[in-house]
Structures are given as C-alpha cells and as structure tokens.
Write a structure and sequence with these properties.
The protein is mainly α. The chain contains 22 helices and two strands. The longest helix is centred in the middle third of the chain and has 32 residues, at 155-186.
C-alpha cells in the first residue's frame, strides 16, 4: 500500500516561502514571454521575484527550523545560503539587463533560466534527502547549460556549453553512483539517518567509497583539483552574466551541499581517510590554481583559475568541525560571490562586441579611460587577493582562524602561499589598467544602464563595507548557523 501524500500546512508554506516565490517567478517570467516577447517585462519579473524571495527569508526564518516532508529542511543553514544565492542572483539579473540589451540574441529566456538555476541551488541548500539533492543539482546544472550556450551565434559559447554538459553529466553520474553506495551501506536516503554518528555498524568500505564519490561529484562543480580542467574554457566561452552565475551560484550551492554532508560525518570511522584526501585536494587546489593563473592573459581565465584556489580555501572551513568552520565557510562564500559578481559585471560592461573583451591588452589604460569601472574592478581584485579593508581579507582571516583552531597547519600554510600567488596575478591586471593608453575613440563608449550602475555600485559598497565593518554579517551567520 502506497504511503499517503503529505499535506503542507501554513507553517510549512511559510518556511518554503523563498522557494515558492522563486518557482512562481520562473513560471510568471515564462508566461510573460509567451504573451509578448519584450526584454523589460521578463527582466522586471525576474528581479522582482528574486527581491521578494530575499525579503521573505526573515519570514521563513520565523517558521524554522522546520522539516518539510522527507526531502527538505528549512533551517539556519538553508536560509543562510538561500540569502546568499538570492542576493547574488539578483545582482546577476541586474548586470545582465544592460549586457543582453546590446546583443542580437533574444534576451527574454535568460531570466527564467536564471530563476531556475537559483531554485536548484536553493534546493541543494535545503535538501536533507539524497533524492532532493540530486533534483536540485540537476535543475541547477541544466539551467546553467542553457545560460552558458545562450548566444546562439557564438561558437565559443556553444563549445563552452558542450564542455560543461559533458563534464557536469559525468560528475552527476559519479555523484549518483556514490549515493547508491551510501544507500546500499545504510539502507536509507535521509541524511540525518545516513550520517548519524550513533548508527549501527555499517560496511566502512561502502560508506567511505560512497562519500568519496559524492565529494568527487561535488568537486567537479567546485572545480577542485584534479576536476578543474573545464573551468577556464567554460568561463572564457560563456557570456559574462552566465559566467558570473557559474562562478557564484553553482559554487555557493555546492558548498552548501558539501557543508551539510561533511558536518555531521566528522566523527564517523570512515571520515579519517576521506578527510586526508580532501585536505590533499584542498592544498593542490590552492597552489595549482594560483600557479596556473600566473600564465593567463585573459581576465576570465584568471578568474577561473583563481576560483580553483578560492574553493580550496573554502575546503579548509569544510574540514573544520563545529560552528567556527560553518560560519567561516558561509561568510567566505558570501564575500566571494559579491566580489566575483562585481568583477564579471565590469567585464560585461566593457564588452560591446559578440565576444567579451577581457584580454589584458583590452584592459590597458582602463583606469584613465573609465575610472569608475576600473575602480570597481580594482576593489574586486584586491578583495579576491585578500588585502585589508576588503571583504576578502576578513573572509580569509576567518578561514585561517578556523584552520588554526582545527590544527590544519599544512592547509593554513597552503592558504598563505596561494594568497601570495593570487596577489601577483591580480596585481598584473591592475598594472595593465594603470598603464598609459590612447584615448578612447569618440562614440565608442556606450552609456551605462541604470540597473548595471546600481548593481555595480551596491556590490562595490559591499566589498568595501564588509571589509571595514563585517560584524553585522558575522552575527547573522553565527545566529543562523548556531546548532545548524
């Protein structure tokens, strides 16, 4: 006899409010496109839906922590990462509006795809069942395939989309096989029972192999070494707003997944070997990402390899047990998303042709030609480098303190070495922008759309504000993740 379909009460719907609003906005955006193909209504529905969902997070928090069916748990962990995902997606939508308006491709479908990608990431943040995690991952991945290949006439975008499709499909297969092993070892698909420290004895090889495969699948999405080869080509070929979504939304969502998987498994008998393997992957990511970025001459590829390093930094927090690691990971993800979205926003602002203009030669003299855009990019790069008075400095300091608390000294040393390498290649970009260059031809510069200017201004304010006064966000993270 089949089990009865669960009925959601008012408190369940209140807890699911951010998810419901984003899903409704995606449907509304598609209906708006079906009624009339116009850029403004689709963009407005997307931005309004994301803003409404972000505003609804405190209301959802009043009903949390709450288990909604067997699939989802709306708790502090889920809400913290949902807020990051929604704020980042809203910034990407605002930055995309002016970028898409200058392109020949129909821009309307970009917005429901962005909403669906955000919805998939939110499901990953709230999922407490292997089926929910897989569903969220696939919604996120399939939406990103389409966003990457969105410019129909661009061969670079099509190539990037195919590469991401193949590699993301492979990672999903690896992750599902790992989930199958976990189910075979535990007999359950619910994370709480699967990862319970006091669970009866289970086949350690199956548990270790299953979790290793799941983390390998997540490693593809996070571009950890040795799963990082796709990142530079995908970042380079994707249009700037889509590359921003790949670099921020997918990374934040998968970090939320990894944090939920690793936190309760810290005391498991099979976690020791897996922890050592993840530590080796983290160290390799921090160092290899920085070394490979030194050789690049295009800003997108520099950001791609730097993201490899940054996800290695986050791995230190994921390997740190207790609230210190959870809070450091959440703050770092928030700072990284804000900073990276601003950097890609400047790339999109400067790109007028069919392909994005991100070579160091194209950036030469930008500080004198377009000082406002250059200032945003400089602030972003200094934050990514982790210099004081930026969000990146506070985020790296928290990661370093969390690693020291867990006595992860080798990883802390790798973090310092990776940060030094990062300072070198970020300063190369800043030096190119400060170099003398010929005056920009009259009429070559297009006016900055109001949405783009507002988004870049707010992102820059957050980059600097979180570096000068991080306490409010730290307190929010601490309150949300207390007890998880």
């Amino acid at each position: 006899m089949s089990s009865p379909v669960p009925v959601l009460d008012a408190a369940d719907w209140q807890a699911l409010l951010p998810l419901a609003i984003v899903a409704g906005a995606a449907a509304a955006a598609m209906l708006a496109i079906a009624v009339r193909r116009r850029h403004a209504p689709a963009a407005l529905v997307c931005a309004a839906g994301l803003a409404a969902a972000l505003v609804s997070v405190p209301a959802a928090a009043q009903a949390s922590p709450r288990r909604v069916t067997a699939l989802l748990a709306v708790d502090g962990h889920a809400l913290a990462y949902m807020a990051v995902l929604l704020a980042t997606a809203l910034a990407v939508a605002l930055l995309a509006h002016g970028y898409l308006a200058r392109r020949d491709d129909p821009p309307e479908e970009f917005y429901p795809l962005l909403l669906l990608a955000t919805l998939g990431g939110m499901l990953l943040a709230a999922g407490v069942h292997l089926a929910a995690l897989f569903l969220g991952l696939e919604i996120l991945s399939v939406s990103l395939y389409a966003l990457i290949g969105y410019p129909a006439a661009s061969r670079n975008a099509a190539e990037a989309a195919i590469k991401y499709l193949v590699l993301a499909g492979s990672s999903s297969a690896i992750l599902v096989f790992g989930m199958a092993l976990l189910y075979a070892a535990s007999g359950t698909m619910e994370l709480e029972a699967l990862l319970a420290a006091d669970a009866p004895a289970r086949p350690l090889p199956l548990m270790a192999a299953g979790m290793a495969l799941v983390m390998a699948g997540a490693g593809f999405k996070l571009a950890w070494v040795p799963f990082h080869q796709w990142a530079p080509d995908v970042y380079q070929g994707a249009p700037a707003p889509a590359a921003a979504a790949v670099a921020t939304l997918s990374k934040a969502a998968v970090v939320a997944l990894a944090a939920r998987l690793l936190a309760p498994a810290g005391d498991a008998a099979w976690m020791g070997a897996l922890g050592r393997a993840l530590a080796a992957v983290a160290a390799a990511s921090m160092l290899a990402g920085g070394l490979l970025a030194l050789r690049q001459t295009r800003l997108k590829r520099i950001l791609a390899y730097s993201s490899v390093s940054h996800m290695g930094f986050v791995a230190i927090a994921l390997l740190t047990p207790g609230p210190a690691g959870a809070e450091a990971a959440a703050f770092y993800v928030a700072a990284y998303c804000v900073t990276t979205a601003a950097a890609f926003g400047v790339i999109g602002l400067l790109s007028a042709g069919p392909d994005d203009e991100d070579s160091l030669d194209a950036l030469r003299g930008l500080l004198w030609r377009r000082p406002a855009a250059a200032g945003v990019l400089v602030a972003s790069l200094l934050s990514l480098a982790g210099l004081p008075l930026t969000a990146g400095f506070v985020a790296k300091f928290q990661i370093l303190m969390a690693g020291a608390e867990a006595s992860l000294w080798a990883l802390c040393a790798a973090l310092v070495a990776g940060s030094v390498l990062g300072l070198v290649y970020y300063l190369r970009v800043i030096a190119a922008m400060a170099a003398p260059a010929e005056a920009e031809p009259r009429g070559a510069r297009q006016p900055v759309p109001a949405a783009t200017a507002a988004a870049l201004g707010l992102l820059t304010l957050l980059v600097v504000g979180l570096g000068v006064w991080p306490a409010p966000l730290q307190r929010l993270a601490e309150a949300a993740l207390a007890g998880r």
